[in-house]
Amino acid sequence: MKKSKPRREYNNRFERGMKVLKRMGREKLMLNQKAISEEMYDMSVGHLFGDVWGRPGLSLRDRQLVTLAANIAMARPSGNHSHYLSAMHLGITKREIIEIMIQVGHYTGWPTLSNAVRQFTEILEEKKKMDAAKKAGRVYHSKLL
Amino acid sequence: MKKSKPRREYNNRFERGMKVLKRMGREKLMLNQKAISEEMYDMSVGHLFGDVWGRPGLSLRDRQLVTLAANIAMARPSGNHSHYLSAMHLGITKREIIEIMIQVGHYTGWPTLSNAVRQFTEILEEKKKMDAAKKAGRVYHSKLL
Amino acid sequence: MKKSKPRREYNNRFERGMKVLKRMGREKLMLNQKAISEEMYDMSVGHLFGDVWGRPGLSLRDRQLVTLAANIAMARPSGNHSHYLSAMHLGITKREIIEIMIQVGHYTGWPTLSNAVRQFTEILEEKKKMDAAKKAGRVYHSKLL
Amino acid sequence: MKKSKPRREYNNRFERGMKVLKRMGREKLMLNQKAISEEMYDMSVGHLFGDVWGRPGLSLRDRQLVTLAANIAMARPSGNHSHYLSAMHLGITKREIIEIMIQVGHYTGWPTLSNAVRQFTEILEEKKKMDAAKKAGRVYHSKLL
Amino acid sequence: MKKSKPRREYNNRFERGMKVLKRMGREKLMLNQKAISEEMYDMSVGHLFGDVWGRPGLSLRDRQLVTLAANIAMARPSGNHSHYLSAMHLGITKREIIEIMIQVGHYTGWPTLSNAVRQFTEILEEKKKMDAAKKAGRVYHSKLL
Amino acid sequence: MKKSKPRREYNNRFERGMKVLKRMGREKLMLNQKAISEEMYDMSVGHLFGDVWGRPGLSLRDRQLVTLAANIAMARPSGNHSHYLSAMHLGITKREIIEIMIQVGHYTGWPTLSNAVRQFTEILEEKKKMDAAKKAGRVYHSKLL
Prior knowledge:
The structure is a homohexamer. Chain A is mainly α. Chain A contains seven helices and no strands. The longest helix of chain A has 26 residues, at 110-135. The termini of chain A are far apart.
């Protein structure tokens, strides 16, 4: 299999990653990675989004569903806020997001449900500010992203 | 909202849970719970499957996707083998399951990917034995379920 | 067993849940759940507090002890602050809470101990503000709850 | 405070740890630690059981309750089987253990409940073998401990 | 082995712990533990730093490496910021810290990498403030420590 | 930075990954991944070992140290046995491994220490069988790898 693959180059993957990020409305994220290490940022865009999120075999919507689920499950202090935004950007409804919280919460514990509610509520507030700023021609940089 | 809901009874939820379990091919599971506590089993069937899995707002396939993702993420020693079976029962393909492993593995660590491969490989072996036994009119009780 | 159970109705469980919450001094919590989904709130009050916390077979104090322990163990970013308050409301002493931190910390790691100390210290500060506000006839809404 | 404490010696703590282990019926455990490192075993007996479990301020029963809860929560592949045995040794009933599983399971996810059921069922089987061996004057060494 | 050990006293371990803490530039930490329980603080300094970090058999640098790795892996909301500071104090370079994030992140998930970047960036900002305050003869107490 | 990098090709990374795996004595692992998905195996060898483990900026020994630490911390049911072997292959001593268990165990809980002892003891037994088989010209395939 390895041999039959066309010889692709690494640099292409950065472009492919950026395309995926744009489809998800995430193209301005991970800049704190870029600030401390260009190579880390390059790997996040190129490998994670170009080579993993960009794979065939599972729709972008389904990749977002399972990523949201994994992140709700792990209940880490940061890193999931942006996935609520990209989920909505990809057409996953608020109702579906709530159902994912309930479903996953039963497999990883009620506090993961309530932590998800807290983070989702926070990011909905931030989204309002970002949208208002955009309308006014300003940029609002959210500390949650 | 609470008031407008028709007065449903608890016992119905056990039946509703069993219906969901049958659609998923899982109706013979959780019997070790039944063996130590009827009430625990009743809650697992009635609440988890009747009241949670049976909710509208998210398709059964999507509930299975996010549950599989949450379980791969947590990498617990037991409890996920059966979800590979019900995922396939619901029409999620082997290819999709592999992509879920790759996708989730990047959010929860490579060993969760390799642990998922190990558990999936084990349950595919068990499934062969269960299917062969079924053909021969016997029952094969898998220790993994 | 299932058959012999009196036919209880779902709505009762919400009332039972509220009663448990009042005994624990928690009746004003989970309102951010209510804000995004009445049904989620209904399930949290009715199932988690009415049907789980309200079960016989383990005292309310012991349920609080093991819940506090599980939450200290998981060290999630939110969701445990309120349990220090309800623990004290139920008569668990500050000394006992400190011993639980030390005991659990040895089973889940020193940073879970120090994270618990941090959260406990934070909520003791908040409690002072809430008590002062109450005395003054005002309401202080803590962001930690 | 440090100064007012009587000058206790390290070696005493090993003896104190062994006393606690005997009260819990655990004095023959952790021998695989001893096999690879005497000092590790010394620290487990002396510090964990002598200096932590042996502390005043929380009853031995309560320490066992919260330890069981923390371990059910973490759902690690090994290390909790023995705590079901010491819990029963200390008088915590089977019914209480089941209620702890249900209570903790709601805070850490249904698979932690079902994993606990699996481990508890396994150790009850092992206990039968150990008890039968004891009656017959033999020793049965369980691989789960 | 136990018998051949010289009879050391507990109080010595507090001093030994403080020495280790000074070598790591951490001697002013864990004061919130001291505020709620002198004994907890005593155990943290004496056992964790005196008896664990102070052990021979693994260099202080290597102990810091594996501790940083374990903490990045667990992605707890607090408790790791200080370890970036002590790592740098012990001569671990910024480049090495970034490589640890990339390496560990692949074993515990991309969000643990990005959470580490966030925490490291935060603490570098705090360090600037602390250094500036020191120069000016003031003390800056960071909320992250 | 991205532009200045020489245009490397994906296929090279598989070879680079294999070289790293050989230095670590791991070249025969992850074959169960290959059995279910060539592409997954390709990514594990090429990305994880070729592009991550093969990076400059942190020695191979240090990458092994922090990986071992992260895996002991997470206490997953599989995936860490092989890292004890590669650690020893890279010259990390048994004593150092024991110290890593003690150090990490204090940051992630005593059961992660005892789980590590269990897994290390198991793999030392397997290693004896593998070495004996090798001497006899046979191959012993360990189920733990």
